[in-house]
Write a structure and sequence with these properties.
heterotrimer, A alpha+beta, B mainly alpha, C alpha+beta, A: alpha+beta, 3-stranded antiparallel β-sheet, elongated, C: alpha+beta, Cytochrome-c3 Hydrogenase, chain B, globular, binds iron/sulfur cluster
Chain lengths: ~160, ~350, ~375
């Protein structure tokens, strides 16, 4: 019948709307359900694998593990890494290739992790840092090996 | 006891005794104007803040909490930003109408303020056709919206304005019928009479189910008339970017924004006056002690509380429901709300004649 | 005055929606012809986010090009990577360790759920309801955290390499995924209460944007868009890859062809994906996560094609190799492009609001269409 259908529609409509309002009303009254994280005060807990930036760890004697083999430069899909090598003469008078500067351009990096995978001597790793903003884009071009750093003993 | 009524009396008295009649009235007019503008500013800020907090809590967020304690100055900061922005007038726009529209909307909102009773005997103008005046003047706003949409010379704005006009014109009907049903019960169009008729109980209780139905219809119609979700087709941002105020920026945009909230406030204040007894405290039959306690709460608080409750309901709708489509919106009005409210009005008239209400 | 506001010679109004518009989810540009509120024609314009990924891939070697494909359909980037890896492995005739296969499938399904959750929230937003978006993101966040822990990134994972995975899963992986399943199953009723059962939502989507079975086939619609029209097109069932053959799951089919049918397909798919994850999560085989590969990958001369089911439909990867270290030519068959092509057909005669609902249920990701 037309009239019963009409009343049923009105009734069903109100019912479904009230159901939705009950749900939002529940969240309105339950403050503990809030999921906002107060970012600058509460530091986010990042996963250890989080890929934020490529860094080169140095030990306390200012030594790193990079041999200057350029495997990472070749593996990088977008030319983020540029390695400048120099020839060093060691104590016994033997000539050896070593890195002069490890140039890393953060603005080009896509955090794909391929360079870290390619490095044969685990000289570079991914760091968790994610707050990269700077006022001058030139600051994005970084030199990863610290000034005066040397290659670690025993890394070939 | 200090109340708005006694303050008002004292002020009036003092003015009259120091300045004499015509001047006292002039000063009163200026004071009322200033008070209205202040009320608007405060209401706008407070309601926007309330909306943002309500929305945030429903969306499991925290909402504004940085500017000032609990973020209460957030909306003031936003207003400051809007004031400092450039008010752009597009090249192809009709300059005069474009700049006039936001003020027209604002003026319409201000005019409706006149007959609203904020507390016991505290009213700007208690005219004898109060409810009719409200219904008539509140529809001036649609002219402003149409003006804004047309003069912007923007297709989104035009569509939004057309939608808004169709919507407000249709929902005016069921809002009017819902208002009428209370007028029938109370037997007067004067707002103070309507409130006085609820001294022994609010109409929503005294009027049984028909009054409840009228209330629901009124609430829906107010939501629609103020262009709020789920009826915010005039500014449906996923369809028309911002609808009729797409081209507005800076302070002119802020006026539209403010007018929206003022209109909600006024709509809800009327709803509270008609169905919940305005400033009238909650009384139960002959429980004298209980009634005495209720009377102790200032009447302005009663009014504000009821209005805020209705405003909260409207915000609750907005943050729960999706938007209707334009043809469904009109279907809802013409196929459901209008017939229901007509039949409802018949019932209420019958009730009033036979004296079935309490 | 009419000429000033842009009409064509029949007096219809022409409106540009996009490339910057709140509901096009990106830089899609639609030129719509309107008669009043009724849509007469929809013309999508592309190219605003064209990055020539296919051409770029020609200069990258077979290890490198995979990461670029994360930037196509960024909501199912893991599945894109998977398709590319499958194609390269097909050329190299590599045998993938079963542990890697299972983990790949697990992450695929997690990605699918995350993508559908985002779609659910965005659809509700297109229809004017803001709150569902936040509820959807609450559960999606859990998936993102799982991804972050295991892959090191939340959106563009790049976790798959030819031959297996880049690294093993995080020790917490199983526990977290189970916690997610429990949480999501306890919350999925909210999706029904807030959106599915809502009359306004139903009246906005039922009978709107109808795509018949024949049209779906002739436009090449795949994924939930095709299945909403009753076309059986789930690549996981039709051309099973990895271990999908051994899994118990249903292909969700709806016959309606309207927006609500597409909606129901996606909701059903989330549940099916959860079933798949439940079957696998306790049965991750031990072993290597990567097959032994040469340092420099070279595909033999010839052409290779692989197809997978992304969250949006069938993604095909076609590689022509001349025997070198880089592809000679590469072509992606992206699901979004074909689905978008049906938009004009679906939204003609509807209202502007219907166009938004239809577009929402097509689940368009513009970088996937434009590449
Ligand atoms: S993470 Fe990728 S893009 Fe960045 S430097 Fe390493 S290889 Fe290059
Ligand atoms: S970082 Fe590793 S791959 Fe790169 S040059 Fe140094 S040793 Fe070689």
């Amino acid at each position: 019948m037309f009239l019963t259908d009409y009343i049923k529609t009105v009734y069903g409509t109100l019912g479904s709307l009230l159901k939705g309002m009950r749900l939002t009303g529940y969240y309105f009254t339950h403050k503990k359900e809030i999921i906002t994280q107060q970012y600058p005060e509460v530091r986010p807990v990042l996963a250890e694998r989080f890929k934020g930036e490529v860094v080169m760890p140095h030990n306390e004697n200012n030594e790193h593990r990079c041999t200057g083999c350029t495997a990472c430069e070749l593996a990088c899909p977008n030319g983020t890494i540029k390695i400048v090598t120099k020839t060093e003469v060691n104590a016994e008078g033997k000539k050896k290739k070593a890195i002069d500067t490890f140039v890393y351009r953060l603005e080009l990096c896509t955090m794909c992790n391929l360079c870290v995978q390619a490095c044969p001597s685990d000289a570079i790793i991914m760091a968790n840092n994610f707050e990269h903003s700077v006022y001058d884009r030139r600051q994005f071009t970084k030199v990863l090996n610290l000034p005066g750093s040397k290659i670690m003993e025993g890394v070939e | 006891m200090i109340s708005l009524e006694s303050l008002n009396r004292a002020l009036q008295h003092w003015l009259q005794s120091t300045l004499g009649d015509p001047w006292a009235y002039l000063v009163m007019c200026v004071l009322v104007g200033l008070a209205a503008i202040t009320l608007f500013a405060v209401l706008g800020l407070a309601l926007v803040y309330m909306e943002r907090k309500v929305a945030a809590l429903m969306q499991i967020r925290m909402g504004p909490n940085r500017v000032g304690p609990k973020g209460i100055f957030q909306t003031s900061a936003d207003t400051l930003k809007l004031v400092m922005k450039e008010g752009l007038t597009p090249d192809g726009a009709d300059k005069f109408l474009f700049n006039f529209a936001p003020f027209l909307v604002m003026i319409a909102a201000m005019l409706v303020l006149a007959p609203i009773a904020f507390a016991r005997n505290f009213q700007i103008w208690d005219l004898n056709i109060g409810v009719l005046y409200v219904a008539a003047v509140s529809s001036i706003a649609v002219i402003g919206i149409l003006m804004a949409g047309w003069s912007s010379n923007n297709k989104y704005s035009l569509l939004g304005a057309m939608r808004s006009a169709a919507q407000i014109v249709s929902y005016e009907l069921s809002a009017g019928l819902a208002i009428l049903s209370i007028v029938v019960l109370a037997g007067s169009l004067r707002i103070s009479d309507i409130i006085a008729s609820q001294a022994d109980g609010w109409w929503i209780i005294k009027g049984h189910v028909p009054a409840l139905i009228a209330f629901v219809i009124f609430l829906i119609a107010v939501t629609a008339e103020t262009n709020r979700a789920p009826f915010d087709l005039a500014e449906a941002e996923s369809e028309l970017t911002a609808g009729f105020h797409t081209e507005y920026s800076g302070m002119k945009f802020a006026l539209f924004f403010l007018a929206e909230y003022i209109n909600i406030f006024i709509g809800c204040a009327i709803g509270a006056t008609l169905f919940f007894g305005g400033w009238m405290p909650f009384h139960i039959g002959h429980w004298e002690a209980f009634n005495r306690v209720m009377d102790y709460i200032p009447s302005s608080l009663w009014f504000l509380g009821k209005t805020l409750f209705l405003i909260f309901l409207i915000m609750w709708f907005r943050w729960t429901f999706p938007r209707l489509r334009v043809d469904q919106l009109l279907n809802l009005e013409w196929k459901y709300l209008l017939p229901i409210s007509m039949i409802n009005l018949l019932f209420i008239t019958l009730m009033a004649i036979l004296g079935w209400h309490l | 005055m009419l000429e000033e506001i842009g009409t064509n010679d029949q007096g219809d109004m022409i409106i540009n929606i996009g490339p910057q518009h709140p509901s096009t989810h990106g830089v899609l540009h639609l030129v719509i012809t309107l008669n009043g509120e009724t849509v007469k024609k929809v013309e999508p314009h592309l190219g605003y986010i064209h990055r020539s990924i296919e051409k770029m891939c020609e200069s990258l070697n077979y290890r490198q090009f995979i990461y670029v494909t994360s930037r196509m359909d960024y909501l199912s980037s893991h599945i894109n990577n998977h398709a590319c890896a499958l194609c390269v492995e097909q050329g190299l005739q590599l045998e993938i360790p079963s542990r890697a296969q299972v983990i790949r499938v697990l992450l695929d399904e997690l990605t699918r759920i995350a993508s559908h959750q985002l779609w659910w929230g965005a659809l509700a937003m297109d229809l004017g309801a803001f709150t569902p978006f936040f509820y959807a993101f609450r559960e999606r966040e859990m998936i993102n955290e799982i991804m972050e822990e295991t892959c090191g990134a939340r959106l563009t994972m790049n976790y798959i390499v030819p031959g297996g995975l880049m690294m093993d899963v995080h020790p917490d992986f199983q526990r977290k995924v189970k916690a997610f399943l429990v949480q999501f199953r306890s919350k999925i009723h909210e999706y029904d209460e807030l959106v599915t059962g809502n009359v306004i939502f139903q009246s906005r989507t039922k009978g709107v944007g109808i795509l018949s079975k024949e049209d779906a086939i002739s436009y090449g619609c795949t994924g939930p868009t095709g299945r909403g029209s009753g076309v059986s097109c789930d690549i996981r069932k039709l051309y099973p890859y990895e271990i999908y053959q051994q899994l118990q799951f249903d292909e969700v089919l709806e016959q309606g062809g309207d927006s609500f049918a597409r909606y129901k397909v996606r909701i059903g798919e989330m549940i099916q994906s959860m079933n798949i994850i439940e079957q696998l999560i306790d049965n991750i085989p031990e072993g290597d996560f990567q097959a032994k590969t040469k340092a420099v990958l070279k595909l033999p001369k010839g052409d290779f094609y692989s197809r997978v089911e992304t969250a949006r439909g069938e993604l095909g990867v076609y590689i022509i190799s001349e025997g070198g270290t880089t592809p000679y030519r590469i072509k992606f068959r992206s699901p979004g492009f074909s689905n978008l092509s049906a938009l004009d057909h679906m939204s003609r005669g509807g209202k502007i609001g219907d166009l938004m609902a239809t577009m929402g249920t097509l689940d368009l990701v513009i970088p996937d269409i434009d590449r």
